[in-house]
Amino acid sequence: MKSENCIIFLLITSVIFFYNKISDDVFAGENFNNRTGVDNSFHMKTIADNLKKTVNFLAEEIGSRGHLESEALKKTADYIKSELTAYGYAVSTQPYIYKGRTYENIFVEKQGHKMSDRVIVVGAHYDTVAGTPGADDNASGIAGILELARLLADEPLDMSVQFVTFVLEEPPLFRSRFMGSYVYARSLKGTGKTVEGMICLEMIGYFTDEPGSQVFPLPFFRWIYPTTGNFITLVSNLKSKGFLKRIKSGFERGTNLPVETLSTVSFVPGVDFSDHRSFWKFGYNAVMVTDTAFYRNPNYHEKGDVPAMLDYKRMGDVVKGLKLAIEELAGGK
């Protein structure tokens, strides 16, 4: 890329970034002034224990869950189905074939009482890069999905909520039409349901209080965002910005865990690096919830991505915040 083109790229990105960051800060200030206090009624130890149980089972007992590791993927799918069934859900699967092998997405739907044809999708992928245990990437996301499904199982909601676990997010299928999330998002077009938005849980377990532990895709981000990796991040494209704000509003009512937001163009590195991208491709609002992956976690896509490296208390705070956000989005209590 020529130097003048690089300058233009940085200028455009900077303008978009600062415009959205300033408006997000204004919104956050309004929301803070209207907060009624964090709900502390959850049994946080139970949540943390459940999260740890799932991460340990997927990352230690099963381990690597790459696209050619059929037995590991089957064991993972069986575990997910068993947990969801235990919470009282009727489990459905969406099988499809890639290069002669059958893969499946797994999902349940909690029916809304008033607007069952309007749906919020909450999803995460259950595969890994081959040869890695994938505790943060993405056993943490699966653990979050299962715990949210448990916590919301008996909560009355106006809209429907689908909890979905996707297969084949990781390379070599990433950004292809064979991603489980792409298959699922495409299938929603023919259901007659209105998708209010999708919440993607992508690596939600790695936190650190070490100064300078947070890095960024663009140098000037450090002028605005914290450089200590002890926060969770909500990421969206520009179209989904309103949906992101609503999630943040509910999230902050549920937990005091710091949350940062970024609504920007998808060519910023990392912004579209998960299953929410598939939903953007079909015109849906979608937001990624993430600890920022390789911008913080040194074990990203490595053998060191093990359960002992995760912070289950803060993971529990993420789940707690998302529960409140989903209840507000779906018209709960």
pLDDT < 50 runs, ≥5 residues:
1-19, 25-41
- What overall geometry do the principal axes of the alpha carbons give? globular
State the strand order across the main sheet: 1-2-4-3-5-8-6-7
Largest sheet: 8 strands, mixed
Order of helices and strands: HHHEEEHEHEEHEHEH
Continuous helix count: 8
First and last CA, distance: 53 Å
Q: Structural class, please? A: alpha/beta
Give a short summary of the structure.
By secondary structure, this protein is of the alpha/beta class. The protein has 8 helices and 8 strands.
Give the tags.
8 strands; 18% strand; alpha/beta; 333 residues
Task: Itemize the secondary structure elements and their pairings.
Elements: H1 3-34, H2 44-62, H3 70-86, E1 92-98, E2 101-110, E3 115-125, H4 135-152, E4 159-166, H5 180-188, E5 194-202, E6 232-236, H6 241-254, E7 259-263, H7 276-281, E8 286-290, H8 312-330
Parallel strand pairs: 3-4, 3-5, 5-8, 6-7
Antiparallel strand pairs: 1-2, 2-4, 6-8
